[in-house]
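Render SAM domain-containing protein in 3D.
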Amino acid sequence: GAYSELLSRTSLETQKLDLMAEVSDLKIKLVGMEKEQSEYEEKQNKAEGLLQELRHLKIKVEELENERNQYEWKLKATKAEIAQLQEQLALKDAEIERLQSQLSRTSSHSEVAERDQEVQRLKIGMESLLAANEEKITTLLAICIKCDYIAVLNPGDTENVDGTIVSDDLSPLSSGTDSGPQSPLSPENRKSPKGIKKIWGKIRRTQSGNFPADDLGLAEFRRGGLRATAGPRLSRSKETKGQKSDYNAPFAQWSTERVCNWLEDFGLGQYVIFARQWVTSGHMLLTATPQDMEKEMGIKHPLHRKKLVLAIKSINAKQDEKSAQLDHIWVTRWLDDIGLPQYKDQFHEARVDGRMLQYLTVNDLLFLKVTSQLHHLSIKCAIHVLHINGFNPHCLRRRPVEESNSSPSEVVQWSNHRVMEWLRSVDLAEYAPNLRGSGVHGALILLEPRFNGDTLAMLLNIPPQKTLLRRHLTTNFNVLIGPEAQQEKREITESTAYTPLTTTAKVRPKKLGFSHFGNLRKKKFDESTDYICPMDTNPGATNGSQKNYGGYKGLSPVTDRELDQVGHTD
């Protein structure tokens, strides 16, 4: 028995020793594993550091590329400017030489006196000649009108009658026709009898004083005379008339000059200098990419590019949008009407017109420095009213018509000033001026579900302790918006997700993840469709909104998307 016990004990001992050896092996392995893990962690940290550095480098590369583009554009602008200045310098040099030669010719007093006497003699001679030939000239002009040849009068036609008078006085007026591309017999160039009378009156009023001077070559010394001021202006107007005669030509066939004039009328005149060098025809502009516009025409301002891209899209699609008839000057007046005049400078500088309002995105507004959530909602509701009124420029009501009974379909069209008038009518005149610059107008009051009596009291700066005054405002506000809107606003207020509107909430731009860095250059030109006020595709929404309150329900679905769209708040 003792032997077997000894055997089992020794076997147990050996097992124990084996296990202990195994444990020590495992401990060594564990230490090795931990060491490996720490090495991996170190490598991972290094990799993250490198990744971070890569991000910074990408951003720096972007910045340097932008800077390089700016310098290229500046260089281009400077070259163009230098060329212009050199031209001007050459002209000035020529003028100085001419003046010097004139001065040397008229250096002695006796010569000047003789010249004056000669001028006087010529004046008298011209007056007598004009009187003698007055009847002949009027007859000739009448015949020309009948024949529709007044636009192509040349000195040869008039020499038989009067050597210089008609041709000399008409020459500055016809300077435009000479340079213009139009046909001389186009209907636009036929002069009416009234126009002839005007020209005749000018000939009579000048007392023939200009003509001898022209003959003597002294016309250059006069400033502000008929020739000096009328020449360039009339020449421009003639060209536009010529363009009108060719008005039916498609945009693609427009000449460089006509495209440049269109850009100037379009509010993008500052890019004409580059357009003249780059654009060969309308077709070139129609096929230009936003990158071309930036590189070749120097259009760095993203909203100027957007304005041009939208216009070109419209021309390509051959669709005449009503919003395109509202220019950027109208938009600045509209900002007054919706109570946001503080943004007029930014909108004017960006040349925001009616068509751009139609396609205005959240990011566009942020670029225009409109960051307040309340102001985003104000602009959204105001654009919606333009949509449902077919971009009628006069759809907002500025003055009271009938004070007694205003239906919600009328209130939705109230301007900021009209809301202030209403405050005066409910004995809150002293608080009305606080609405200036608040962005409060009829559409915001009715269409924004979260805009209630408390919001208005906050914007009017009525202290919370003035409970009676606040109650008085809320009562009148509820009467104004009507029972349906009141019910909708109450439901929103009582919902769990409700957060009241404040003046401090900001809209933040959507952040780009790391994966987007590679596409930044491309994305710069991508057209975002995150419109501040998307077009309502429901045709029922536009019907009846003017006539009765029923149409108001058609307006609300767009604004119900509000919390999703402008929800990036602080």
